[in-house]
Design brief:
- The protein has 277 residues and is of the alpha/beta class.
- 49% of the residues lie in helices and 14% in strands.
- The chain contains eleven helices and seven strands.
- Helix 5 runs parallel beside helix 6.
- The longest helix has 29 residues.
- The N and C termini lie far apart (39 Å).
- Bound molecules: NADP nicotinamide-adenine-dinucleotide phosphate.
- NADP nicotinamide-adenine-dinucleotide phosphate binds next to helix 3, strand 2 and helix 9.
Length: 277
């Protein structure tokens, strides 16, 4: 039985889009041996840096963007070059669609067409809801959730046209189970999960996979702000009795981006040391 693809709507909506999609299906220039280029948002530091470096080890050239940490980004870029790979890095506010389009266009001109997008850029602005102002709500949703839409919206047509491509979105266990004082962050991270499952269904028939990685508590600048007392309080609820490392999240992203995960899509996989058991 043929499963109807929601992307068939593209054909009904636009003849031009159909033509381009169909050409992509037979394009002899698109071969699996082509050089692979990955985009990592929030790739300057923390988990994004670990992912960018791991993907370079896996053979990708890497485009990485950040908001302001130019020095950290340059260091990450240097590590990637040291692995013998090309790198394109620059500022891009993922909450702004125009900025995302500009960055991706420049990255593709420099490195070639993207084969993988990893949405890792994220911020927290925690407060109990009774104290949360609308700015903290909008900022966190803007970066964490609009950012995922902006990047996916920009890359997805190319992926469909070429009938290959992968997306890995970084959510959080907070988006699965909720966390007091993080209504904004949890809403954004839960939103990423719904978004990714819907998109996986839309683009799966075109050979494009979309998965979600949901880390628990990982040692980065984001969790540094919690302080030792919070980490101590958390410890008994983590089965492995330690915080995670950014490289441990990167290992899962690396697997999901690879052909070893060719039959995995629409999944939410937690890297959390058993915090949610
Ligand atoms: P981090 O160390 O604070 O790094 C955040 C990264 O996102 C930085 O590269 C930052 O760029 C970038 N960024 C922030 N806002 C941006 C924007 N508007 N546009 C573009 N880039 C932006 O955080 P992390 O701990 O590595 O977290 C990475 C991802 O994992 C986030 O999505 C986070 O929610 C998720 N996560 C983290 C944990 C954890 O325990 N650490 C747990 C679950 C999920 P600048 O350096 O220029 O600011």
């Amino acid at each position: 039985m043929e499963v109807p693809s929601p992307c068939d709507g593209i054909r009904l909506a636009s003849g031009r889009a159909t033509d381009r999609l169909n050409r992509g299906r037979q394009d002899p220039a698109v071969s699996p041996s082509d050089r692979q280029v990955a985009l990592v948002t929030g790739g300057s530091r923390g988990i994004g840096r670990a992912i960018a470096v791991q993907l370079a080890r896996d053979g990708f050239d890497v485009a990485l963007c950040y908001r302001q940490a130019a020095e950290a980004a340059a260091e990450t870029a240097e590590r990637i070059r040291g692995l013998g790979h090309r790198v394109f890095h620059g500022t891009c506010d993922v909450s702004e669609l125009d900025d995302v389009q500009r960055f991706i266009k420049a990255a593709e001109e420099d490195l070639g067409e993207l084969a993988l997008a990893v949405n890792c850029a994220g911020i927290v602005k925690d407060n109990p809801l009774v104290l949360m102002d609308q700015g903290a709500w909008k900022d966190v949703l803007g970066t964490n959730l609009d950012g995922v839409f902006n990047v996916c919206r920009t890359v997805v047509f190319g992926f469909l046209k070429r009938r290959r491509g992968g997306i890995v979105n970084i959510s959080s266990v907070a988006g699965v189970y909720g966390n007091a004082t993080q209504t904004n962050y949890c809403a954004a991270k839960a939103g990423i999960i719904g978004f990714s499952k819907a998109l996986a269904k839309e683009v799966g028939p075109y050979g494009v996979r979309v998965n979600v990685v949901a880390p628990g508590f990982i040692t980065t600048q984001m969790t540094e702000g919690l302080g030792p007392k919070v980490a101590e309080r958390l410890m008994p609820s983590i089965a492995l009795r330690r915080l995670g490392e950014a490289a441990e999240v990167a290992d899962l992203v690396s697997f999901l981006a690879s052909n070893r995960a060719a039959y995995i899509t629409g999944q939410v996989i937690q890297v959390d040391g058993g915090i949610t058991l």
